[in-house]
Amino acid sequence: MKNHAAMYIAAMRLQAGLLPPSVLSIRGPKLQRKSIGVARRAATRGLGYSFFVALLLNATFIAPLWAAEKAGDVVVTGIGLRMAYVPAGEFLMGAPFDDRARMADELPHKVTLTRPFRISTTEVTQRQWRDVMDGTPSRFTGDDLPVEMISWRDAVEFCRRLSDRQGKTYRLPTEAEWEYACRADGRRPGRDLDAWAWYAGNSDGKTHPVAGKRANRWGLHDMLGNVAEWCMDYYGPYPDAAVVADPTGAVEGSYRVVRGGSWLHFAAACRPSARMTVPESYQLPHVGLRVVEELRP
Ligand SMILES: [Ca+2]
To answer: How many CB atoms lie within 10 A of CB 206?
Structure first.
């Protein structure tokens, strides 16, 4: 083993140009000669050891770190947005038939999301918006309040500028990603909406600082209530298929999907499956955004 180690070191130094073959001298019982032939054999074995060591390092340190990322793990962006990891998975999108508040457009159907992503744990605040865009357009003003009075186009522009700045891909969530994240591990949120959401029953007619209410199982606050959130999709009926993979909504339309209800809405609109529609140019005091970061496979 000593010889192999010495050969490996010599080969690496040779490959790196640190040791000219003409002066190569490796001390050891079987490697005493100054010889380019020995150096070549050492280099060959060195490549073998390089591969072995790389494999070992990857298996020991790198792969477990990558594999260890689990639902709710957070990374923080340069503007202070906390982004939670959401694993790929399958869930029942829409309202169960025993949901007495369900609307006709909430038909339950299975959806598979084939790629993991990250989603901000809060709505985008006015401080974060101002850091990326010009000014704060909101009706209710405060650094830690969610930004509102922004159109869908404004929200998309925010994502574009944030992507440019961070060198990553940020965008609005699809409607399916939003509902999957809202439902977290698939269970229904607690019935005590006061603990989870600012809505018409407790908001006093205004927005509130983000993360003031309980987070769901993946660490996401205010999915329900505070401000409703723009999604990427055009509004349309759900597709008629047994299982739908990575849906992105209607191909075209006049309205974008907005989710979660807000400080202005009563409890029936603050359900994980409740769908609202808004023209993409509208700026409303109860509509803001949260962002998704795409993850490369
Ligand atoms: Ca919200």
So the answer is: 15
| Contact residues for 14 (Cβ-Cβ < 8 A; gap 6+) | 21, 24, 39, 42, 43, 46
124, 290 in Cβ contact below 8 A?
A: yes
Give the Å distance between the CA of 250 and the centre of ligand 1. 23
81 CA to middle of ligand 1, Å?
A: 15
Q: Please tell me the distance between residue 223's alpha carbon and the centre of ligand 1 in angstroms.
A: 4
For ligand 1, the distance from its centroid to the CA atom of residue 123, given in whole angstroms, is 6
2 pLDDT above the threshold of 70: no
Q: How does pLDDT run across 6-34, given as a tens digit for each residue?
A: 444 433 443 333 333 333 333 333 433 44
Tens-place pLDDT, residues 95-140? 988 888 999 999 999 999 999 999 999 999 999 999 999 888 999 9
Residue located via tokens 């509509």 = 287
CA distance 220 to 27: 61
Residue 45: pLDDT band by 50, 70, 90 thresholds?
low
Q: What pLDDT score was predicted for residue 208?
A: 98
Rounded to whole angstroms, the Cα distance separating 261 from 213 reads: 15
Q: How confident is the model at residue 239 (pLDDT cuts 50, 70, 90)?
A: confident
| 36 Cα–ligand 1 center, Å | 69
* Tokens, residue 239: 């597709």
CB 121, CB 219: distance < 8 Å:
yes
Identify the pLDDT of residue 188.
64
Q: Tell which residue, 154, 156, 131, 148, has the closest CA to residue 80.
A: 131
Ligand 1 centroid from CA 75, angstroms: 20
CA 274 / ligand 1 centre spacing (Å): 12
Give the closest residue to 72 by CA, choosing from 114, 112, 120, 113.
120
How remote is the CA of residue 141 from the centroid of ligand 1, in Å?
17
- What are the two backbone dihedrals, phi and then psi, of residue 152, each rounded to the nearest 5 degrees? -60, -40
